[in-house]
Description:
CATH class of chain A: Alpha Beta
Mean pLDDT of chain B: 85
Number of domains of chain A: 1
Helix content of chain B: over 70%
Strand content of chain A: 15-25%
Strand content of chain B: under 5%
Low-confidence stretches of chain A: 254-259
Order of helices and strands of chain B: HHHHHHHHHHH
Strand order of the largest sheet of chain A: 6-7-8-3-9-10
Shape of chain B: globular
Bound molecules: adenosine-5'-triphosphate, magnesium ion
Structural class of chain A: alpha/beta
Structural class of chain B: mainly alpha
Number of strands of chain B: 0
Helix content of chain A: 25-40%
Oligomer: heterodimer
Distance between the termini of chain B: 30 Å
CATH superfamily of the domain at 82-278 in chain B: MetI-like
CATH class of the domain at 82-278 in chain B: Mainly Alpha
Number of helices of chain A: 8
CATH architecture of the domain at 82-278 in chain B: Orthogonal Bundle
CATH architecture of chain A: 3-Layer(aba) Sandwich
CATH superfamily of chain A: P-loop containing nucleotide triphosphate hydrolases
Number of helices of chain B: 11
Largest sheet of chain A: 6 strands, mixed
Mean pLDDT of chain A: 86
Amino acid sequence: xxxxxxxxxxxxxxxxxxxxxxxxxxxxxxxxxxxxxxxxxxxxxxxxxxxxxxxxxxxxxxxxxxxxxxxxxxxxxxxxxxxxxxxxxxxxxxxxxxxxxxxxxxxxxxxxxxxxxxxxxxxxxxxxxxxxxxxxxxxxxxxxxxxxxxxxxxxxxxxxxxxxxxxxxxxxxxxxxxxxxxxxxxxxxxxxxxxxxxxxxxxxxxxxxxxxxxxxxxxxxxxxxxxxxxxxxxxxxxxxxxxxxxxxxxxxxxxxxxx
Amino acid sequence: xxxxxxxxxxxxxxxxxxxxxxxxxxxxxxxxxxxxxxxxxxxxxxxxxxxxxxxxxxxxxxxxxxxxxxxxxxxxxxxxxxxxxxxxxxxxxxxxxxxxxxxxxxxxxxxxxxxxxxxxxxxxxxxxxxxxxxxxxxxxxxxxxxxxxxxxxxxxxxxxxxxxxxxxxxxxxxxxxxxxxxxxxxxxxxxxxxxxxxxxxxxxxxxxxxxxxxxxxxxxxxxxxxxxxxxxxxxxxxxxxxxxxxxxxxxxxxxxxxxxxxxxxxxxxxxxxxxxxxxxxxxx
Lengths: 259, 284
Ligand SMILES: Nc1ncnc2c1ncn2[C@@H]1O[C@H](COP(=O)(O)OP(=O)(O)OP(=O)(O)O)[C@@H](O)[C@H]1O
Ligand SMILES: [Mg+2]
């Protein structure tokens, strides 16, 4: 298709076939494109297929219909450019933070001195420079998730997939992580697909908010967020911000905003 | 054949991953050193108390010596024939350890095969469960037919008993890896070997170790049962001989030695676990 997109989701559908033969169509006719360096939030009700979408984009699952192109190439070959952050950090308790960050490179067999230096820089960037040789049990939940973000960034991904990365954090930590992720994103220049249940979070962070409707999952709205950057805390209470949030909310069922 | 004192649910299954806000707990703990010292003191006091009660019961009830003797008689017996007991203990220990080592190796291998191959799992798992229902000591006569009256048959009985907890626990442990880590490995195209070495087997270690803790005591029992049935050496033989001679001090001396070696082996495995899995103590 088109090489100018970081990612193209072309008419993608995903149907799970259960053992009794019943088909469960989770995604249907999904079509959207992300420009390089864009930050796209994805919101939608629980069970609408957001996680399924991320797994399909990352190549963990194959779509049953359509195709996904990363920089114009089918995802099978493009895996190197993708990284994922999960809802829980799942750090390895027997590795210190630095070694946890380097795990993806060990998987790839490309752990080098230079990579180690970069991993330290990343930890520095998220304010954990002095904790490199500490273990995850010595960190708070927010700190652990920052290590997990470093672990995702260490492979220099061009596309960062985040599946409710701050869902398990308290509101205050979450706010500071939101400010932090904007900074990280600016520094690395990668494209981000960010799944969240929080509409304010989605609007605050994103260039675009894609609303996924359920049964089957499809795009019901694609809202451009043309607020100035960088966006500090004060922007969350601006009238323009509320307008966008209200608009996004109007596309979702009433229950989705809670969480 | 002492019941494993510490094999409870808390040691089974997945190692607690420090995940999410659950990890936001104070790091301050009582010094582990001091904890284990007081625990050891309590354990010793418990054992001494047990001996005291036992001696007291014998002193008060004053049973004939062919029914029950006190621990003092047993220890006197031990002191009078140290060579005899040491020699036979060494035999039983060797059989048990050989059986345990073999059972552990085979058990871990088998558990891993069950985890990694769906084909092997579908063929082997039902068969294993069926075999597991046979009391392993019932196999002892068969092993004696196959491997003779010597060392091997007892080691194989010990192995047969030690094997199953390790199969199950290895299989469980390998299956306990959080799916996010498996996905992380797949996204980064980790080879199967790297996945095993860097994640899966390390995750399984706590579970394998709790299997080993169960197996080590079982292996001692297996060796003794083998010696009951056939043999002219080992603590099982000591017990049988004492039985035929109505020599209760000697029999109780053998019980005490058995309990002591089972306990010692158990704590050795436990200690190995603490060395191998230092992170587990923090993630509780
Ligand atoms: N491996 C699977 N096999 C069968 N069905 C699945 C599988 N994974 C997900 N589903 C189904 O797909 C639907 C979408 O699930 P998914 O996890 O993608 O939703 P989600 O939007 O991420 O929800 P949430 O917001 O709660 O995380 C659900 O109905 C779920 O039951
Ligand atoms: Mg989800």
